[in-house]
Design brief:
By secondary structure, the chain is an alpha/beta fold. It is built from eight helices and four strands; from the N terminus they run αβαβαβαβαααα. It starts with 9 loop residues before the first helix and ends in a 13-residue tail after the last helix. It binds zinc ion.
Length: 252
């Protein structure tokens, strides 16, 4: 069975949507990940995890949305960002287009943490319209495994954790000679309890936060396998659950 919507004809899509009301939608961003890793890191990881999960659970997977909320990386060349408002609206309209064909349950596989606030708001709005959207992110999906494999300074943006996943999924896109470690600078206004509107460039010169040189494909493979297993469980649960029971209704 084909699972990638982009590879189906409309006749095949009709057949899928007339029998299934669940889909997977990968979303990421196009933003700097230091000199060693590709700008597509976030959307490439989301796409790979989403497509493999789709195959294992026989659920349709949409084409990845490659642009997200990442203006904080804009000083680094090649970063392409959209505003949270436009991003939310664009994703919401794509979900409503799916709803036209009867889709009621959408699993967003989000590869970029900066998208989360907009996606959470969108999911809340869509639930009121009868569409249940859940948002999956690979790094909190394995709260037991990841802290065992990586130290806290390896777990930040473009660090060893994320780079290991890149190595596991598409090692040819990582330039091992350019891996580096950079201790982020602390802004002078940074204090306990303070949130600042900082850009990446305020904290690092390379775009890497913390330790990256310890990245390994072996660790990355463990992470990928673990998070795909988690996501498959979630998708199977949604497939087996009636949309009505996931929506809001007045209290009994
Ligand atoms: Zn990233």
């Amino acid at each position: 069975m084909k699972v990638l919507l982009s590879e189906m004809s409309w006749v095949e899509a009709k057949e899928y949507f007339s029998k299934n009301d669940t889909v997977i939608l990968p979303i990421g961003s196009t933003e700097q990940h230091g000199p060693a890793s590709p700008l597509g890191t976030d959307f490439l990881i989301a796409k790979a995890i989403a497509e493999e999960t789709a195959k294992r659970s026989s659920v349709a997977c949409l084409p990845v949305i490659p642009f997200g909320v990442s203006s904080h990386h804009k000083q680094f060349w090649g970063t392409i960002f959209v505003s949270p408002k436009i991003f939310k609206r664009y994703v919401k309209e794509a979900c409503l287009a799916l709803n036209y064909f009867g889709v009621r349950k959408i699993v967003v596989v989000n590869g970029h943490g900066g998208n989360l606030n907009a996606l959470a708001l969108m999911a809340r709005e869509l639930r009121e319209k009868g569409v249940f959207v859940s948002v999956f992110q690979w790094w909190p999906a394995s709260t037991k495994l990841l802290p065992r494999l990586f130290e806290p300074d390896e777990r930040r943006h473009a660090g060893a954790e994320e780079t290991s996943v890149n190595l596991a999924l598409h090692s040819h896109l990582v330039n091992l000679n350019k891996l580096l470690d950079e201790e982020p600078r602390k802004h002078k206004a940074q204090m306990e309890g303070i949130t600042l509107p900082l850009d990446t460039v305020d904290e690092t010169s390379s775009g890497v936060f913390g330790k990256q040189t310890t990245a390994s494909a072996k660790k990355g493979k463990k992470v990928v396998e673990t998070v795909i297993n988690e996501l498959v469980k979630h998708v199977e649960m949604l497939k087996a659950t009636k949309a009505e029971s996931l929506l809001q209704k007045p209290k009994t």
